[in-house]
Amino acid sequence: MAAERTLVLVKPDGLKRRLVGEIISRFERKGLRLIALKELQLTQAKAEKHYSVHKDKPFFKDLVQYIISGPIVAMILEGNNAISVVRGMCGATDGSKANPGTIRGDFALSIQNNIVHASDSTDAYQHEGSIFFAENELHEFSYGDEQLI
Hints:
Helix content is about 40%, strand content about 20%. The radius of gyration is 15 Å and the shape is globular. By secondary structure, it is an alpha+beta fold. It has helices at about 10-15, 20-30, 45-50, 60-65, 80-90, 105, 120-130; strands at about 5-10, 35-40, 70-80, 115-120. It has 7 helices and 4 strands. A 4-stranded antiparallel β-sheet has the order 2-3-1-4, sandwiched between helices.
């Protein structure tokens, strides 16, 4: 098990529904380290950069318009196999198909308004993480209970 980092965004629907604390709490209870956190309003340019892998797809414009429709919360989590652990906790991208117990399974009913975004690979994290956080915004520290998790 290798410690790695992943980016998670709580999308505008997550903020509007007051789910930020619940989502962060789930990740913390799992044992992931929260090393960066901020609320922000994305610009169209940043949103387009974030979703650039989808720029030639018909849903690109809708993705961008939704993510800039309200504030988001961005976070970087760190832990053993963080990318696959977080993706599993988030559930299927289409909330109507996500398993109960996952974030999307518990709170989302559609593919667009699906509460969260999570990096799907190390390469994706490398691209996405730098859009939202400068290196000096990442804070490493010990919780003191890592040997128990």
